[in-house]
Every structure is written in C-alpha cells, then in structure tokens.
Write a structure and sequence with these properties.
heterodimer, A: 396 residues, alpha+beta, 11 strands, 10% strand, B: alpha+beta, 4 strands
Amino acid sequence: MTDSTPAAAPFPLDRPNPFDPSVELGRLRQEEPVSRLAYPDGHVGWLVTSHSLIRAVLADERFSSKAEIKHTPVARASVSDEPRPAPPGFFVANDPPEHTRYRHLLTGQFTVRRMRELTPLIQQCTHTCLEEMAWQGPPTDLVQAFALPLPSLVICELLGVPYEDRAEFQRHSASLARVGASQEETVAAYMALTSFMRELVLAKRARPADDLISGLTGSDLTDEELTNIGFMLLGAGHETTANMIALGTFALLSNPDQIAVMRKEPERAVEELLRYLSVVPFTVRTALEDVELAGRHIKAGESVTVSIAAGNRDPERFADPDTLDLLRSSSSQIAFGHGIHQCLGQQLARIEMQIAYPALFDRFPSLRLDVPPEEVPLRADMLIHGVHRLPVTWDI
Amino acid sequence: MEVTVDQVKCVGAGQCVLVAPEVFDQREEDGLVTLLDPAPGDHLRAAVDEAAALCPAAAIGLEGPR
C-alpha cells in the first residue's frame, strides 16, 4: 500500500434503522465511491458505492464472478472463506462461456410471458396462505404465516417439489443463509439440501412431469449439474422474495400513507420497494486483469464488493433517495443486479410481490405491528437483509 | 429510429419486454430477445431508450435520428 492510498476499512454492516443501509456507505459514496476494503481473510480489495460505478463494474467482463478467486467481505464462522471452485451447474459463480451455456438453458423458463401465466397459481397460493392466517387469527408472525410460505409454495410448484418436503427444505435453507450458524449446522444443511435435490432430479428423470426440472432432463445436463441448478433456484427463489415480502410489509406499515398506492399501482410500487430495501445488500466481483475505475487502479486478483444498497440510495440517480415514494419511477433500481448475472427469476419475484402486498392489505385492512417497531428482530447479521419475525395483528 | 438486438449478448432478463412490449419479445424456446418492430415510431422512443439503458447485457442498439 502506498502513502497516498487511504487505509482499508472493513465492510460497514451497521444500520441506523431497519430500512436504511449504513450511514458510512453514504459517506463513502459521496467522498470516495471506489474505496479500499479490508476483507476478513486479510485481503485488501475495493468497495464501490455509486449507482453508475456499480453498473459499470457489473457490466464489465474483466470483473469475474468465479468463486475460486473471490474474497468475501463478511466473515462467516460457519463457512470456510477459502476460495474454491463452484460445483458444476452453480452458474452464479461462473463466467462465460460456462455461465452462458447454463443460463441459456434456463432463460426460456423465466420469460415475462411464462411468469405472467403463473398469475392464477400465485393468486391461489396467496389466497391459501391468507385464509389460513385468518383462520388461525391474530396475532401472528407474518414471516411464518405468509412471507416464507408463499414464495416457497410457488418455487416448489415451479420445480415440482413435493409439498410434504417443504418444511424440511425451509429449515435447511434458513441455516445456510445465516451468518451466525455453526460450521456443523451449515455443512449439515448443505448436505441435506443437496441430497434432497438429487432425489428430486432422479425422481423427475424416472417420471417426468410438467415442471422445470423435468423439462431440463431433456438437455445434456448431468445429474450433478441438474442437482446444483435445482439447489440454486430453490434457494434463490425462496429466501430473497420471502424477505422482500416481510420487510416490505414492515416498510409499508411504517409508511401507512403508501399502502393505498401499493394497492392501486402495485407494478410501480414494487420497483420502489425493491430500490428502497435492497434485500441483497452487496455482491462481489474479482478483477481478472488490471482495471482503471474512476481514477483508481484495481489490480488483477483484487476483489471488488459493490454495495447494491448504497447504489439504490444514490442521490445522483434518485432524488430524495432515503424517502419511500411508491409513486416515483424506480425502474433503474439495481436490486436484481446488473450485467450478465442479473437475477434470472426477477419476473417471477415481481409478480409474486405485485400480488402479495395488495392481497395482504385487502384481506387485512387493519393490519398493524403487534410490537413497537424497534422490537422487530432484524436479520442484521445476514447476507440477505430482512426480519426474523414480524409480529402483526388485526381487527376481526 | 432503428433498433437492433444481439442474441449472443442477451441474458433473457426480460427488462425490455416489460418496458417496451410493442418492440421487444422473448423467444418461446430460450427466452432470448426478438424484435417485434425494428423501426418503431417516435411515440415509442422513450420506452426503447429506457429498454436499451436498462438492458443488463447491453444487447440493444439504437441508430438513426434521436
């Protein structure tokens, strides 16, 4: 490190409230949008915090997604942070051409049209969850009653996962995403989910049905690749949307004047909630060669963490960025990322949320928090932001 | 305004179909972009500009008077 290089600091994880990212990220965005970042493994890399530079990094194929060269900005006791190759088929951690081959096998399954065709199914799943919640009566934990079961039902339907296996799947998936989990818990969850998916793949090969995994058995993918792809989709389609539904409901209850807008214009409103909440707060790339970025010299092999949350609150892109305004145009939000890895399931996520929030407030117009807002337990230690529980009540 | 699309770059995110459904579609078999209207009228310019700006893979090209 030369004298002119500012000291590297660790990634700021603190939050001033449930919805805003660390104040430090805002300071960096303004003063030093490409700053040095100290990684827990001792690596010194970079942190990027402005909307335009984040887009530039994510669109630039000199920045790799490969797991074997990546340093992780947040320490997880449960997981060895030693870089290692992704398992075959786990293409979020691949570069082209491997990434292209896998992604193109799946893009046809997640088109705007296909996802819109799922609307009746999603409405039915939503109705089922909400009627069960009403039957149980207030108060309840919205995470367990609605936010988790809805996306779980939908992704399990899409993949063809048997209904009776879902509870087990949710438990393992939650412990994989938790930063504080022990190594034993994480390994056990990973093993259990892998064998779960392997059995599903073998069952679909033996008896194909009308679902995504069955459709992929006609390709040249191996059982191992199919297992890992299924594993990835199950995780990705589940935890992220669940946290958007729960944290988004918390945000709406905290800004009650916005609820009418959500019911009236859900498409526009969901984009703004995605921007405001950024439940996937950061992602990481690693330079394959030396790259100049905004006057900084990034060396080959250095990892670059992009703060999606900071980019989505960039005042250069969004006026009054820390205000939740469901009427604004937020289409340039980067909650789904940018570049070739931009979320494959984004159209599914959008439709689930566009259905879920209005249906929730239609069914329970008097919905409100059942604890003071500061007592809602946040997933502050998690790779996906959200709440552990959202205690709610309503008038019968 | 002339619009071009690059199916090699396309990653099937569907942003263009959301923003400008009169101009862009996705192929049934693989979800990659197709053009419904390679020379859209001026009334669609703002939507096509937005689609090109949002495209995660820079797969949309615009030519002609802006």
